[in-house]
Amino acid sequence: MPGVRQKLPLYVLKEVVPWYLGGVLLFLTLQMTDVLSSTVGRLITYRVPLAQVLALLGDQMPALLNRCLVLAVPFALLLAFGRLAKDSEFKAAMAGGVRPLRLLLPLLVPALLVGGFAYYNAGWVTPAGQERWWNAWYGVFNQAPPPPSTDRYAFAQGDTFYSAGRVQNDRNGVLASLVGVLVIRGDTVYSAANGVWDALAHTWTMGGVTVVGPDGVPRPYAGELTLPQRDVLQRPVSRPDQTGTPQLRAQLRQLQAERPLPDETQRSLAFELSRRVADPFTPLAFVLAAGALGLLVSNRAWAAGSVILFIFGFYVLWSTVPSLAQAGALSPTLAAWLPNLVFVALGAALAWRLR
């Protein structure tokens, strides 16, 4: 029997691996089909060359692959364990003195390897692919990418308050265009649809200005209005999903230094950074939760149903927490780790039952 106890965990690993590879391929095919269904019409309409189509799909592959590597873990464990349960191999193992949870030990190392790859892929490879993907579409549409922008800008200087709905500037330029400008100086309010920020001269210049004085009556301002503005023109924060992990950390530190009170942008960046650390540990949480659940299923039908419920429950939780973090309902760190914590708790409860 000692020989059986040593060989059985490796036998279980060999049973799981083919299901895992099949699950990765299945989920990758499903997601790629979804991408093609949403883009193939535009690719044909704009007569995109085949080489560019393949490049676009290649840019999407890292993001799709990360999700497939994680979701294939419960898929493989539950279906493989369902087959072993159907053939009464678990009962035979337990009759031979093998503790059920011992069968999960050889699965931990592959889960760590998958998590390590997912961490690198999510932090470095995927953001570069996403940036190329979105920029490539401007080439498909024969358009130039829009300049980087900062939305809902606000700054106070003495008794003057400056705000703009959007600030757009070149990455290394000293001029920025302003959209939806509002300046309050004492009892006077200036508003304009557009303006220009000159970072070298430290001024805001607006045309078509409307002035509202202390009497509350709006009046048009003759000519252009130039006001001093001492704030520093910063490079706009890029989209978190298109920014590598080191750059994302630097952006978050800069925002935290400028704005001690966290706003929605800071919470979004903090959540993205926390998720990139938490998601690589999801395969380990799945090994415990799905593995313990798989040891309890009695046949393949229960295993197939468990796969659907398991993945659906995780996806609902995983897709809900970002909005909770951005709204401030949960801290970004807790929101990122919440799906893992829930499934670790589920796995611990099931493991207690298997003692």
Measured by DSSP, the beta-strand proportion falls in 15-25%
The residue ranges in which pLDDT falls below 50 over 5 or more consecutive positions are: none
Radius of gyration: 28 Å
The main pleated sheet reads as: 8 strands, antiparallel
How many individual helices?
Answer: 9
Structural domain tally: 2
User: H/E order of the elements?
Assistant: HHHHEEEEEEEEHHHHH
- Residues in helix, %: 55-70%
* Cα separation of the termini: 20 Å
General shape: elongated
Quickly give the structural class. alpha+beta
What is the overall pLDDT average? 90
Count of distinct strands: 8
Layout of secondary structure:
Blueprint: H1 2-45, H2 50-86, H3 89-95, H4 108-140, E1 149-157, E2 160-169, E3 175-185, E4 188-198, E5 203-207, E6 210-212, E7 218-220, E8 225-228, H5 245-258, H6 264-278, H7 282-296, H8 300-327, H9 332-354
Helix pairs in contact: 1-2, 2-4, 2-7, 2-8, 4-7, 5-6, 6-8, 6-9, 7-9, 8-9
Brief sketch in words of this structure:
This protein has 355 residues and is α+β, with helices and mostly antiparallel strands. The chain has helices at 2-45, 50-86, 89-95, 108-140, 245-258, 264-278, 282-296, 300-327, 332-354; strands at residues 149-157, 160-169, 175-185, 188-198, 203-207, 210-212, 218-220, 225-228. The chain starts with a helix and ends with a helix.
